[in-house]
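Hey forum,

I'm writing up a methods section and want to include a predicted complex as supplementary material. The small molecule is zinc ion. I've pasted the protein sequence and the SMILES. Can someone with a working setup run it? I'll credit the forum in the acknowledgements.
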Amino acid sequence: MAMPLSSKEPVTPLTQRHLAPQTGTGLVVRRGELLKIIDPTGEQVSDLISFAQEDPREWLSSGRTIDYANTIYLTTGHTLYSNRSRPMWTVVEDTVGRHDFLLTPCSPETFSIIYKTTGHHPSCFENLVKALAPFGIAPDAIPTTLNVFMNVEVAPDGELRILPPRSRAGDHLVLRAEMDLVVGVTACSAELSNNGTFKPIDVEVHAAPTAAAARGAHAAPASA
Ligand SMILES: [Zn+2]
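Reply by user p_vandermeer:
Happy to help. Structure tokens for the complex are below, copy them as they are.
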């Protein structure tokens, strides 16, 4: 009789991408699969956006998600909704507990308007445009991103404070896809959001857990 797989055994991801600092990537995540965003060194933000694969006019909506969660701080157990109010993701694991869903991806204009930067500055928006173009997603279709690990606090007077991410090396966020999705994800390019330095981000897609694995220990024989 085959030995049951231990839950401690390392699991090989279906897809694994290492995002160099200030870059992005595009990928498809199927319904039921798990998307894991990992901060390998700590204090690094990753901007994430998704579109329904069957119709990219359906996109991950900050407004709908915040409406239904009734909080701006989304974490394990929360559902992330589309503009059509359908569940796109469920947050299944969160080792940090602080992410932002208020602010848009940093763009060339972010740096010229807020930071008065002159000349070209890499940005999440440009990286998402590049990563999503092969999937037929136009720049104007990219809305507010889920800014994974971004630490934004709201003062009583409404002022926003962008603080260093609370993530430490190895911290991660795991999302379960509730529909087939086209996903854009970055290693953020904004100095202020990342405590002054640019670091990589690791992205993994894991297969949908089988029914047996989901039942966990209850499904396994009681042998050692
Ligand atoms: Zn950014």
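Some notes you might quote in the supplement: The mean pLDDT is 92. Residues 47, 105-106, 124, 188-190 surround zinc ion (CB under 6 Å).
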